[in-house]
Structures are given as C-alpha cells and as structure tokens.
Amino acid sequence: MFTSLNEEFSIEKTREIEKEKKKIKKSYYTYLINRKIDDIFNYELVHEENLHLFERVKEYTLFNHIRSGRKKINIEAYNLTRYEKALMEYVELLINDGMFIKARKLLNIAKEKKYLSNKYYELEERIRKEYRFNSKL
C-alpha cells in the first residue's frame, strides 16, 4: 500500500549506486576505444560503495595502457605503485628497453609493498641475467 521513508531512500540510493557503476564501466569501455587515460583518473567517485570497482577499473586501465606500448607514463600522477599488475608490466617494459636501474628501483618498491608473485621473481631474475650480459658488452 505504501512504503516507508527509509525504504524509499534505500531504493533511491541503490538506484544511484547502480547508475554510477554503469557510468564507471562505460568510462572504461570508452577508454578502450579512445585510449584517453585521464578521463578515468579524473573521474570523481560519488558513492563509496563503488570504490572497489573503481580501483579495479583504474588498475585495468593502467595495465592496458602500459601493455599497449605507452612508454611515457607519470608514475606519481597515476600512482602506479599502488597497482601490482600494472607495476609488473611497467617493470617488464623497462627491462625490455634496457632501463635496468629504474626497473630495479620499482621492484624494490614492489617488494616493500609485498607484491611477491611469480612475476616479481621472474623479472628480478631477468634483470640479473640481462644486466650482467649487457654490462659485459
């Protein structure tokens, strides 16, 4: 017959949260088309309930941005060290370019943040092998 005010407020809030989820996902899909990373990182989150989704979207965006061959990325502006997969991908890109010291520094940061996955150890081993090989040349 009628709904209480609390229930109406709850329903309305749930709708707003769902709208924001759709907006976050849409911004990610838009990024995949136009490759403008700043659109996602400048987005202002309204509902705290969507924080986990938003953080995942930012991590996936950075990962895809790095994987697509973008070598110039501002580590501080995008807080790259906060996202494990993106950081490991960037370190791999640095190793491929021969920037071993910068890659080593980022791996030390990854170790401090306890990002100790198989990928970490593989990259650490690659640095050891390739740095020795390149220093002998």
Order of helices and strands: HHHHHH
Q: Could you tell me the strand content as a percent range?
A: under 5%
Number of strands: 0
Number of helices: 6
The oligomeric status of these chains comes to: single chain
Q: Characterize the overall form.
A: elongated
Content-based structural category: mainly alpha
Uncertain spans, ≥5 residues at pLDDT below 50?
A: none
| Helix content class | over 70%
Question: What's the N-to-C terminus distance?
Answer: 83 Å
Report the average pLDDT across residues: 88
Task: Show the helix and strand layout.
Elements: H1 5-34, H2 38-41, H3 51-67, H4 84-96, H5 100-112, H6 118-136
Helix pairs in contact: 1-3, 3-4, 4-5, 4-6, 5-6
Which key features would you list for this structure?
6 helices, mainly alpha, single chain, 70% helix, 137 residues
General description of the model:
This protein is mainly α and 137 residues long. The protein contains six helices and no strands. The model has no long low-confidence stretch (mean pLDDT 88).
